[in-house]
Design brief:
The protein has 284 residues and is of the alpha/beta class. The protein is built from ten helices and nine strands. Helix 6 packs across helix 8 and helix 9 runs antiparallel to helix 10.
């Protein structure tokens, strides 16, 4: 039985149609653009860094405050990790190859792509494959190897660009009706919190494992994995900076969360450059 339309999970929980739901915050970004920070930010934090910011860097308190305005209580429930930048029917070798494309792409990445001449559209999951197959869209991003393979995107296009500039991680949520949550005794509130914690570990681990398995299979099926050229990345960084500035100017909550997010991102970048990136390089 369907309780709500695509992208309507939070509305259903807010209205009491359901007491609890599973979604990702940026699907409700039309309510408050600051919700992007609790899903994915272009050129932003990885899954582990996002978890660290939420738990120790003040992110959860900001999230709680924004959701309380709608009578909601959010819990982090894991991440799909680093995503794919998109599937294309033809190689993307320059900015000119992006201009005019109809592309399914979510979040702030879609806003940045529009600045480069892409017609960015946010299709609900069931519509991605048929729209791609029919030619209604020319390119599509969904998640990463595991779910992209499950959706059959490799049957339509053989060029997949990685990593996703727009979603270096994509956080998921368990969202609870705040009134219903607060009516529960403390031990049942703890059950929900611990279930969300268990889900976050399981989800992130599952994506890391099955993405690796699916990547191998997709390569065997003839998919070419490549990276956007330096000029495309440079243009995207400029576009993202403009998008972030525009959203911050339009929404004080966006600016407030951005300040906290960026403060930890700067710390995380230095740590990642000195330790994590060197580790990955050594094991190649």
């Amino acid at each position: 039985m369907s309780l709500c339309p695509p992208f309507g999970v939070e509305d259903a929980v807010e209205q009491g149609t359901a007491e609890i739901g599973h979604s990702t915050p940026y699907y409700a970004a039309s309510k408050n653009s600051a919700l992007h920070f609790f899903s994915a930010i272009p050129f932003g934090m990885t899954a582990v860094e996002t978890t660290a910011w939420l738990r120790y860097g003040g992110g959860q308190a900001l999230w709680d405050g924004i959701y309380a305005e709608r009578g909601l209580k959010p819990f982090y429930s894991g991440s799909s990790g680093v995503q794919s930048a998109g599937w294309f029917k033809n190689p993307i070798e320059s900015l000119n190859d992006l201009s005019g494309l109809n592309m399914r792409i979510a979040g702030l990445g879609g806003e940045a792509m529009r600045k480069l001449g892409v017609n960015a559209v946010l299709l609900p999951p069931p519509e991605i494959f048929p729209s791609f197959q029919s030619g209604a869209i020319d390119a599509a991003e969904w998640v990463g190897p595991m779910l992209d393979q499950a959706f059959g995107l490799q049957k339509v296009a053989k060029y997949c660009y990685v990593p996703a500039f727009h979603e270096p991680s994509a956080a998921l949520e368990i969202v609870v009706n705040k009134e219903a949550y607060e009516s529960l005794p403390a031990h049942l509130q703890a059950v929900i919190a611990n279930a969300a914690e268990a889900s976050s570990v399981e989800t992130t681990a599952q994506f890391d494992y099955y993405n690796a398995v699916a990547l191998k299979k997709l390569k065997e099926e003839g998919v070419t994995f490549g990276a956007f050229s330096d000029d495309v990345i440079a243009a995207l960084k400029t576009a993202v900076a403009e998008v972030m500035a525009e959203n911050a100017a339009a929404n004080p909550a966006f600016a407030e969360v951005q300040e906290s997010y960026n403060a930890f991102l700067e710390l995380a970048k230095d740590y990642a450059t000195l330790l994590k990136e060197a580790t990955f390089t050594q094991r190649v």
